[in-house]
Design brief:
ion transport
């Protein structure tokens, strides 16, 4: 049995060293990979559309979704650390085979919906920046994601750093646009009061939720934390668990700020104006050029492109984690990339409105959230699996409340759309 006086392995010794910056950095990384999926092109579409149509009305949805995401990703990271296995692997081991197959099928659909948003968003960005037609742009984005994925062959650190750098550029672009837009602080604060304006605002709220608490990244995050740092016993696992919580708070705090900035910029620049088409990505780009200047429009398009490239890499990795975990099977990365590209390329080829496709894809993601959340809550409350990292009762209650809210929101949407 390992006690608090047991020798600490080198990575943990570094993390606990008196040099706080270097030590904390070793424990950071997995949540930044997750965070880039929280600022993917689907977020651009849902948040910008919400701000342009409803002003500051849905600020509370963005904030609430991000707080929920912090809790969910903390549980997910802790699950991988405590068990040494990803969420799909745990589902395969503990769920009946028919249910496990169903879970795999819906998870693959969720991953494909994710890739749809990311490739379309990147293609739109290439069109806005360089005039590249959407279909060739989708092919370019899908192919370019291989360069980022290739970094995984060198270990987890280069991949995490590359994703964090891309996230940093996205943050910078929206920070500049937010300062330039100068949104009304009092109106933004009033947007923290929960309220809706009809079914369309509910649809956008579900889209924001699906674009923030993303099912595929729940699977990914659980696969990034097992065996990342060698640990021996509960004492050392608690050290790493504390670092993972900090990782989540920083990374998702940054992602949440970007999401909020997207909505605030659109609300202050477009809501109540006569600028046309500002509920589309192309319209937002043109509108920013009109209201804030060319630099703001270019910054938006560059951030959109980097978001598409980074998030589609994470999405492809998610598909690998899903198949390997639920079915214990692998297919070559090139074949998987081609399969997941097909829906996005089909949408681009037939001329469906890209922004509409992005928003609807995020609604699909919202319907996939309960199937990822429920197993996370089930497993993290089991002491036989989690050891000392088992959930407290309050934590489980909060996670159950989030899951219940998502299920209720989706049921209401189905009822409204069918009426």
């Amino acid at each position: 049995m390992v006690t608090n006086d047991s020798p600490v392995v080198p990575p943990l010794r570094t993390a606990r060293a008196p040099r706080p910056v270097r030590g904390r950095l070793i424990l950071l990384g997995p949540a930044f990979v997750a965070a880039v999926a929280y600022v993917d092109p689907g977020n651009f579409a849902t948040n910008s559309t919400a701000g342009a149509r409803y002003g500051y009305l849905l600020v509370w949805v963005v904030v609430a979704a991000n707080l929920a995401a912090m809790l969910v990703q903390t549980l997910t990271a802790k699950l991988g650390l405590a068990t040494g296995r990803s969420l799909p692997e745990l589902c395969r081991e503990h769920l009946p085979r028919p249910l496990n197959r169903f879970m795999w099928a819906q998870a693959e659909l969720v991953a494909m919906a994710t890739d749809l948003a990311e490739v379309i968003g990147g293609a739109v960005a290439l069109y806005l920046l360089f005039g590249v037609p959407l279909l060739p742009g989708g092919l370019i984005v899908g192919t370019a994601s291989f360069a980022i994925l290739a970094l995984r062959s060198r270990g987890f650190r280069p991949f995490e750093i590359a994703i964090a750098v891309l996230l940093g550029v996205i943050v910078l672009a929206f920070a500049v646009n937010l300062v330039t837009a100068q949104p009304d602080v009092s109106d933004a604060a009033a947007g923290l009061l929960p309220r809706m304006q009809g079914t369309d605002s509910m649809l956008l709220a579900a889209g924001i939720l699906g674009a923030t608490v993303m099912p595929h990244v729940i699977y990914v995050h659980s696969a990034l934390t097992p065996n990342r740092l060698p640990t021996e016993g509960e004492a050392q696992r608690r050290v790493v668990a504390k670092g993972l919580r900090v990782d989540v708070l920083i990374a998702l705090g940054v992602a949440g700020a970007v999401n909020l900035a997207m909505l605030l910029v659109a609300a202050s620049s477009f809501h109540g104006t006569s600028i046309p088409g500002t509920d589309t990505l192309e319209g937002v780009h043109a509108g920013l050029a009109t209201t804030l200047g060319t630099a703001a429009a270019v910054g938006f398009a560059v951030a959109l492109l980097l978001s598409g490239l980074a998030s589609t890499s994470v999405g492809t990795y998610a598909g690998e984690v899903i198949m390997q975990g639920f079915l214990r099977r692998r297919i070559p990365l090139l074949i998987r990339r081609m399969i997941t590209l097909l829906p996005a390329l089909a949408v681009l080829a037939i001329g469906v409105d890209p922004t509409r496709a992005l928003v609807l894809s995020q609604v699909v993601l919202s319907f996939g959230i309960p199937f990822a959340l429920i197993p996370v809550v089930m497993f993290t409350r089991r002491r036989d699996l989690m050891g000392s990292l088992v959930n407290r009762r309050a934590t489980t209650a909060a996670a159950v409340a989030i899951t219940a809210f998502v299920v209720a929101l989706n049921a209401f949407l189905l009822w409204q759309l069918a009426a």
